[in-house]
Amino acid sequence: MRLRKRYIDGRWGQVHMRVAEPDRETARPVVCLHQSPLSSRTYEALMRELGQDRRVVAIDTPGYGESDPPPAPASIVDYASSHGEIVDALGYGEIDMIGTHTGARMATELAIQRPKQVKHLSFIGCSVYTDEEREKQRAWNDDSFKHTEGSKGEHLQVTWNNWSQFRWEGVTDEMIDRYISDCLRDRSRATWALQGVFAHDLRTRLPLVEQPTLVFNVRDDIYEATKRAGDLLKRGRVVDMTPARLWLTEVKTKEVADMIRDFFAQP
Question: 241-258 burial string, b = 16+ CB within 10 Å, else e?
């Protein structure tokens, strides 16, 4: 298995991705969409496991990681469409998809747009917000990424605190550092995809998903909101991964990969 990086031209510029290429491909490709404001590197450990028997592609959402940004904040539907164009450029037919937080919303929309092409879904966090939760999350994100020009670096401590509160057994400082460095890259655009999140209602969108869907729920800031997803999915279930928090696929890589592989193998 080889893990490589590559670029493809997209609607808003170059799109960066990581690609796991198996020595022998026996299952359909998997496309992974990351949480914002992070990047595709959050999937590297999982890609090495799943990539043993299938091609796995983790795309940097436009404006994050190494992908060029859209000219202005885009909707979740538009981000999903742009990802679909990359799948077309790669020449893939049927695919399975994995999405984390923001990426789960984009994968939801791509599954709705392409019901025959997307065969299975697996989400890590899938927040069905109440109005109160949505406004609380919006305020928290606005405060976390507020303008800091001329400051003494206080935002660095804030960013560390935001992520380290979800540390659990097996999470290292290096893992937290990777999240922080992604957040600090082009920080002025960090909330662009998150603006799309707060305008996107999974309560009305998840019931439109026809594909089998496996949702992992961890003890993070959307734990309660993710519980509600189970009642909205036609062919899905939510698995509580307590005591796991964030970094699930880096701490419990093989366990999660085996669960996803078994689920994707079902009709």
Answer: beebbbbbbbbbbeebbe
Distances (CA, A) of 91 to 43, 80, 174, 256: 22, 17, 35, 27
The ranges assigned to domains in the chain are: 2-264
pTM, entire model = 0.97
In order of 56, 198, 250, the CA distances from 136 in angstroms are: 35, 10, 28
Is 87:31 a contact under the CB 8 Å cutoff? yes
**2-264 sits in which CATH class?**
alpha beta
- Predicted pLDDT at 207: 98
**pLDDT of 147 strictly over 80:** no
pLDDT tens digits for range 62-100: 999 999 999 999 999 999 999 999 999 999 999 999 999
Instruction: Check if the beta carbon of residue 48 is closer than 8 Å to that of residue 1.
Output: yes
- The model's confidence at residue 145, banded by pLDDT at 50, 70 and 90, is confident
For the stretch 197-249, pLDDT in tens is 999 999 999 999 999 999 999 999 999 999 999 999 999 999 999 999 999 99
